[in-house]
Amino acid sequence: MNKSRVVGIFSILSALSYLTVGISHFLMPPEQLHFAHGITARFFLSLSKDATFFHIHYWSFVIGSLLAMGVFICVRVAESDSLLY
Of 7, 9, 14, 17, whose CA–CA distance to 59 is shortest? Predict the structure, then answer.
């Protein structure tokens, strides 16, 4: 498989992953947005009731970050061996 094709696939999947992060953020209950309210007992009670969007949100972020790192590793200039950011 061509290197530019791999970079393109990683880039598209990373973008889709970050779109999933944004969409799932708005679908999470307000109690699970721990940066807005802090980690309280309501946060853990809400997670025990339904943690579906919470898991989708954070796993999409992890996968998107790994794909973005894959893009940075794959994109190298042949002559200077430096990374393009």
Answer: 17
